[in-house]
Amino acid sequence: MKKEQLSEHIGNIDDRLVQQAEHVPNYARQHRQNGFKRFAAIAAVIALMVCSFTVGAVAFAKETIVEVPIEEETIALEKIGLTVVLPNEWEGKYGIELNEDGTGCAVYVKDIHDGNGEMSGLGYLFWIGLAQSDKQPLTPEELYEWSPTPCIYLFSTADATYILEKHSDVQYDPSNPEETELYMTMSQQIQDISFKIDNPAAIDG
User: 168, 150 in Cβ contact below 8 A?
Assistant: First the structure.
């Protein structure tokens, strides 16, 4: 091969090498692109997992929040259309004695009334029902003047007056600290008693 032909042949080889080099894949760039794609895919999966967990947590929270209504402690005096709502703390601590005609009842501290102490059979907190006055209805002033014991005027209808009478005599053993504390605590909670009336429209002014 002559010198000119060798030079031309080498030049052709160089040209082919340049052309091949232009078509050689950029592995570094492809690696970066593939890495970015993998990162984006992983990020998407994590995002889906977080969203799913959040939705699940919210759904779980909604399913477990259940409001259970508290059962009220009540005394129903159906004969006079009155329901007495007692403090919830009185559950299991009180007893009642209904009037024979169903127009009222006495409420007592169970541990004192049913116990074996000196005050067994007592422990009365109050009596609630209709004022047994010949004049009906009574105003609060007339009731307080008429009643022989301390009382609370509740309300009046056209033909009746509803009252709560407290016991003025000692109903617990003062020498028994636990009995005294129980009775005095429940006595103070009488102010928390509320009432439900069958026919509110019948109440006078």
Answer: yes
What is the rounded distance in angstroms from the CA atom of residue 170 to the CA atom of residue 184? 11
Contact (CB, 8 A) for 103 and 77: yes
Segment 144-170 shows an average pLDDT of 92
- Tokens found for residue 92: 């299991």
Taking only the tens place, the pLDDT of each residue in 22-47 is 544 454 455 445 554 554 555 554 55
Q: Are residues 121 and 98 in the same domain?
A: yes
Residue with tokens 């209504």: 69
Residue 157 domain boundaries: 73-202
Last residue of some domain: 28, 47, 64? 64
Pair 201, 195: CB distance under 8 Å: no
Same domain, 81 and 45: no
Give the integer Cα–Cα distance in Å for 192 and 96.
Answer: 18
Is the preceding omega at residue 137 within 30 degrees of 0, hence cis? yes
124 and 152 in a single domain? The answer is yes
pTM (2 decimals)?
Answer: 0.65
Extended beta strands in 38-160, E state = 73-77, 82-86, 94-98, 104-109, 124-130, 151-156
Coil, helix or strand at residue 42: helix
Q: How far apart are CA 153 and CA 108, in angstroms?
A: 20
